[in-house]
User: What shape does this take?
Amino acid sequence: MKLNEPKIKKMYNLLLNKYGYQGWWPLINYKCKKTLKTKFIEKYHPKDYSFPKTKNELFEICIGCILTQNTSWLNVEKSLYNLNQLKLINPNKIINSHSSTIQKCIKPSGYFNLKTKYIKNFTKAFLENKWSNKNPPSRIELLDIKGVGNETADSILLYGFKVPSFVIDAYTKRILLNLKILNKEEPYNKIKYLFENSLEQKYELFQEFHALLVKHAKMYYTNKKTYKQDFLYEEL
DNA sequence: TTCCAGGCAATAC
DNA sequence: GTATTGCATGGA
Assistant: This one.
């Protein structure tokens, strides 16, 4: 057993216990069942790991993964909303759209010139290789796309194609460093394998864990002053 | 006003 | 292989 394996497992249980099921990946068109009390549109789907259910939902997740690069999710939602208004959350529509159209839609999420190219690059590969839930891309194929790096590739695999590939983001690195599970900045893949080797290879678990880490980091790790308030420090 | 968000590629050593 | 830089909007 690896040194940090028990800590990683315990961390998951502590986070789940504190925050509950996160219901990632958010989908803009997912609607909660209407009840007497609620008829709002809910983007999250706690404890339901069956998404994406359609090809367009799969595509929406992939596009969201690219749009959220170094960008807040609120801004990404605005871009997805704009794309959806023009019914562009569809690979064939994206390929046949002018770049200027996409640029206007995704302006709220920043880097819109770059991200338009990235989305086009991804969509081209998506269609050419006929990627689907039954025919997912390999990590290598995704990394070969200009605009898809480690985190984006893993997010697409994990949340889009339900492949158990752990996502490491800036938040996760911050948490591990503060808790001294890592004592220095390590390469992406080394941190990724630390999680993957400590856990069951289940996509549901990987999705939930990563979402919980983001939730936790938003509470304690957006401001350096609150790092030391992280309750995990005492519990692990 | 400044800082930062669910990164990436190009470039320079 | 590691360090630096440009890319861009919107909310706190």
Observations:
- DSSP finds twelve helices and no strands in chain A.
